Amino acid sequence: MRVLVVGAGAMGRWFADSVATADDEIAFVDADETAAAAAADALDGRALTPPVEERFDLVCVAVPLPAAASVIEEYADRADRAICDVTGSMRDPIDAMRAHAPEIERVSLHPLFAPENAPGNLAVVTDADGPIAETIRDRLTARGNELVATTPAEHDEAMETVQARAHTAVLAFALAAEDVPDTFQTPISEALFDLVEQLTDGEARVYADIQAAFEGADDVAAAARQIARADDETFTELYESLQ
């Protein structure tokens, strides 16, 4: 199988490493030619310079969320048999693949973990099935991932809570918190500080893209205001509603 990975960052490398075998031919292309060369060296592939003229059995788009639809449009005609994405949202990529690759297999994948934490749960929308789509799923499962079949709407709605709302809550705590001695930490505060450390160990751009792609941040802000302004009776009602 000849595979082109568009986007040579951590997620593009993860896809190539998880899905390709020694019998496959892997190529990387990236706006940053240095990144493409590094990925190719690390995974025994080739680095290509855009525009790409070759055709491949499978094209995988692994670019930041805001670029997903336009990159799918640009590279869809390089795919002979299948196209997939690992961009993190599903509605827009699926719509773009349907529009620009209507005759071939289409799959959207979202690893619900950072590549360094693989394997884990992996959301999958198989929009147009076939032998390459089946091979992708089989190889990801063989690597220890738990595949979760979903729909674009179900996935993106879930991301409003598990990403946009969750990240907002943790970052808001981090912005409001002050340094305190470790001896004063409670199990809850300690867990929150651990989450802050985990969340801020990434790239700001990635989290900014998530906040822009999915709604939910305003809901957390509204809930925080509701708690902050609550009298004893209202606070008790809010607390008990969560039990």
UniProtKB/TrEMBL annotation:
Entry-linked Gene3D superfamilies: 6-phosphogluconate dehydrogenase C-terminal like domain, NAD(P)-binding Rossmann-like Domain
Coiled coil, from the record: none
Keywords, alphabetical: Oxidoreductase
One function term, GO molecular function aspect: NAD+ binding
Any Pfam family hit: PDH_N
Domain called Prephenate/arogenate dehydrogenase: residue spans: 1-243
Domain of life: Archaea
InterPro entries cross-referenced by the UniProt entry: 6-PGluconate_DH-like_C_sf (IPR008927), NAD(P)-bd_dom_sf (IPR036291), PDH_N (IPR046826), Preph/Arog_dehydrog (IPR050812), Prephen_DH (IPR003099)
GO biological process: tyrosine biosynthetic process
PANTHER family: PREPHENATE DEHYDROGENASE, PREPHENATE DEHYDROGENASE [NADP(+)]
Protein name (database record): Prephenate dehydrogenase
The organism of origin for this protein: Halomicrobium mukohataei (strain ATCC 700874 / DSM 12286 / JCM 9738 / NCIMB 13541)
